[in-house]
Amino acid sequence: MAPSTLLSTRAAALRRRPLRLGLAATLWLAGTWVVAAQDNAPLIDGVGAYTHSQIMRHRDDAEPGRREARPRARGQQAPARGGATLDSLDFAPRPAVSAALNAAFADSLTGRRPSLDSEVLRDIDGAFERHPQFRRLLAQQIGGDDRGRVVQALQSGRLQAQFGQRLQAHGYSARNFGDVLNAFMIYGWTLANDGARSDHDAAFSGLRARLADSLARGQKLTSMRPQQLQEAAELYGLVATLAGAAWQNARSPAERASVRDGMAAIGRTVGIDFRAVALRDGGFAPKR
């Protein structure tokens, strides 16, 4: 893994970059107040701009009589001018991309420098650096420090299939970046809050509705290429699945605390403080 000095240099370089993953600058500006109100350190970057746009759009407190929009069926055209549909975030998985990503993620899980240059993987790897016990717990679910076993487990597709089935149960697709990111945030929030429960079915529907509305209004959520969409979606799915297994298999409160803190750290890489928000029917909203 990279020395701490290199990580600090890399972090400084990232702060000087334009918006991560090509998300619209207007969403970045819309979201900054949410983090500032909870934490003096700005967390918005890239995908986090989309995350915070969802928090900002949860207006139940300001408009108690406002009814939530019903989620549109996938592929249904939105009436707003210049809008897109949820299908615009679909991608067609390529086996070669998955194979390279699995090898690089195995590097990260076993304490090696990842062989793939991916912004999302760099963020995850940085969280592993800050929370090494979290990394070890995730790796233990599929082979520990034995990279060969970890690669074999990832390449088997078992974890990816498990995540896809969980998404499918909520009407989501593992081949849609928006669906995967929403699901990751819901699962991440649950683990970062000590397994707290909510009406997950309503939250899945609520986040889908808000994303559909943002797209329909012409908000460009990402300019990621298909390969980048696939890499990000598969990484978030793998982390969510392994973290869930680590939580279930934890042998002590300390291990669960490591899972909690690790997921909170990865949440911050997408711009959301899981512990500062509540998960409601319509999605995430600042805690009162």
Would you spell out the secondary-structure blueprint of this structure?
Blueprint: H1 4-16, H2 25-38, H3 47-56, H4 95-109, H5 119-130, H6 132-140, H7 147-155, H8 158-169, H9 177-192, H10 200-216, H11 226-248, H12 253-269, E1 277-280, E2 283-286
Antiparallel strand pairs: 1-2
Helix pairs in contact: 2-3, 4-5, 4-7, 4-11, 5-6, 5-12, 6-11, 6-12, 8-11, 9-10, 9-11, 9-12
Description:
This protein is 58% helix and 3% strand. The chain is built from twelve helices and two strands; from the N terminus they run H-H-H-H-H-H-H-H-H-H-H-H-E-E. It is globular. A two-stranded antiparallel ribbon has the order 1-2. The longest helix has 23 residues, at 226-248. With 288 residues, the protein is an all-alpha fold. Strand 1 and strand 2 (283-286) form a beta hairpin. The termini are far apart.
Q: How would you describe this structure in keywords?
A:
288 residues; mainly alpha; two-stranded antiparallel ribbon; 2 strands; 3% strand; disordered N terminus
Total DSSP helices: 12
Biggest sheet statistics = 2 strands, antiparallel
- Strand order in the largest sheet: 1-2
- Tell me the total number of β-strands: 2
Strand content: under 5%
Decide which structural class fits the backbone.
Answer: mainly alpha
Oligomer: single chain
Radius of gyration: 18 Å
Order of helical and strand elements: HHHHHHHHHHHHEE
Task: Tell me the helix content.
Answer: 55-70%
Which whole number gives the mean pLDDT? 75
**Distance from first to last alpha carbon:** 40 Å
From the spread of the alpha carbons, the general shape counts as globular
Q: Outline the low-pLDDT stretches.
A: 1-81
